[in-house]
Amino acid sequence: MTGEGACSVTEGCITCGDVAVALIVVSMVGMDARCRDEQGREETVAMELVGTVTPGDRVLVHAGVAIEALTRDSRTSKASRTSHMTGSGE
Amino acid sequence: MRFVDEFRDPELALVLGTEITALCDPGQHYKIMEVCGGHTHTIYRYGVQDHLPDNIELVHGPGCPVCVIPMGRVDDGVAIAERDDVILTCFGDMMRIPGGNGSFLDANAAGADIRMVYSPLDALRIARQNPDRQVVFYAIGFETTAPSTALTVLRAKQEGIPNFSVFCNHVTIIPAIKAILDSPDLRLDAFLGPGHVSTVIGCRPYDFIARQHGKPLVCAGFEPLDLLQSVYLIMKQLKEGRAEVENQYGRVVDWDGNPRALAVMNDVFSLRPYFEWRGLGSISHSALQLSSRYADFDAELRFAVPGVRVADPKACQCGEVLKGVLKPWECKVFGTACTPETPIGTCMVSSEGACAAYYNYGQYAKQRIHLEV
What we know:
The complex is a heterodimer. By secondary structure, chain A is mainly beta. Chain B is of the alpha/beta class. The two termini of chain B are 41 Å apart.
């Protein structure tokens, strides 16, 4: 999100800090969406990288672009997966 | 606050700390590197280290996007910005990174038109609004940010905006981890993997760390309990003699990453043969440049830049800090000549930088007390 504390010379920059913010889609505007955070602040976010979203969906936003949709069923099913790689000595 | 409070529960933190301690061999010292600067920030903001036994040491890695920008690249940006017809745009922390000839803030004060943006899409908007000026986006960041830049270039091409270009400094995390693993002066037991980078690239690219180096990696979220649970998972692996890639941040990170973001990056970018990282030196295939299909938007082709390698100030030990060889407070100028207000090195600039995190959250004083004892 833009605004106070999001990106400033003195307080630091959330983009530089690799911070991503979870927002809720409010409405679609062409390829973008108006999204809202828990404090009610709104932002226009590019949606090309997450495919189809609808109002009410949650998306992870970084630098004005949604980089992941958070409401898909697949998210929880993959929460505990591991690669089952063995150590080099085994 | 939903999705936040449950990850900051102090009672759960105490429970996790106890369980982590139970997994430790008291006679062994464990070194775990948190690769991402965001993790460093959380660790010192919330005192995560205080919940860990003394024989677990968290080592700070190179994953702060602005910290790894070499001084010569800053000078290149200043050289572009000094042109009368150019508006240079960049993220906030980049403004204060010292170059050989000053920072972007210094250049601004001297008359250059350098504007802070939150998104590369903001830079594209400025280009639309200023068709008689060249608007350059000074791109930095890892794979979290690179897709945003790629998407912006795609939009610029689709809209036919000729006065927009990108000075690309995007870097990739895997070659940096490889360089650290190959470093002879650092012995690490495991890694906390970068959460938001992994949102884009997934968990599979880390397989070599477990398979070839026999070290666990857990992709971790950014709340205090995320990090404690990730340390717990690492210690469980070490206790059981396993080396695996695990995903603690499953509520955000998909095992395969974001295929759309990866496809856009692959279309717009190509790997540079070499790129200089501050502190780590030149690492092959570790950074991105615009691919030939998008050469019209490449600021390095559009403008002449010095392209000169500039050595870090002798007093600055950011390189050792970025590799985890030195703790920030062990740097000769930490907290004296180098502070967040007057940074000498990059690690003191960004809030995600290890030195700034130490300085801002009191670890400076704490560690000095330990030294005096």
